[in-house]
Backbone:
């Protein structure tokens, strides 16, 4: 079971078991959780997966939501709600971050400077390609700043490398946090681009 979507379905089934009458497939949960932890960015993992390393921990977590006669439905709904965003990320995001395609997408996310830079890039692409490439570096800086500020922090550095390092910390994009060599290589390559641009 190396497929992330398959692992997510296994976890979801284990959560339903736990919600209804206690988890029976505790080893399956631990294994599938490990697959997801090594292949999905930390910020995309549901809270229940981040804080519950075992089936017993899941049972206790869900019992805190509701107990008593007929409360299994409430626990099951809570478990399903926690998994919804992960399934959306895996099925529609393809396990990758979505590309932002228009200035309004940046502005909607509070990245006004990035929206302005994106607008300038689209104008220069045909008339001034070199200028568009230069602005692409500025765009990356603006996006990093927007991510840092959205987390409630203030940027500590002004170079793209320092800004990227701050962002990778916030987004959980550290090579050491993942066991899958393909994901490690991808994160390493992204870091190299940020350093060399």
Residues:
């Amino acid at each position: 079971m190396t497929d992330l979507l398959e692992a997510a379905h296994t976890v979801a089934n284990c959560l339903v078991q736990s919600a209804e009458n206690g988890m029976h497939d505790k080893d399956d949960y631990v294994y599938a959780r490990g697959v997801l932890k090594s292949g999905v960015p930390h910020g995309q993992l549901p809270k229940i997966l981040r804080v519950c390393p075992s089936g017993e921990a899941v049972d206790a977590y869900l019992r805190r939501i509701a107990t008593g006669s007929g409360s299994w439905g409430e626990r099951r709904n809570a478990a399903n709600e926690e998994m919804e965003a992960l399934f959306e990320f895996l099925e529609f995001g393809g396990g990758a971050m979505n590309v932002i395609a228009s200035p309004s997408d940046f502005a909607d996310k509070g990245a006004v400077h990035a929206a302005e830079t994106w607008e300038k890039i689209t104008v220069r692409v045909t008339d001034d390609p070199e200028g568009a490439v230069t602005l692409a570096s500025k765009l990356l800086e603006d996006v990093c700043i927007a991510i840092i500020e959205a987390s409630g922090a203030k940027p500590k550095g002004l170079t793209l490398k320092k800004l990227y390092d701050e962002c990778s910390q916030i987004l959980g994009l550290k090579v050491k946090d993942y066991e899958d060599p393909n994901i490690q290589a991808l994160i390493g390559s992204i870091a190299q681009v940020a350093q060399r641009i």
Summary: Residues 4-92 form one domain. DSSP finds ten helices and no strands in the chain. The longest helix spans residues 129-150.
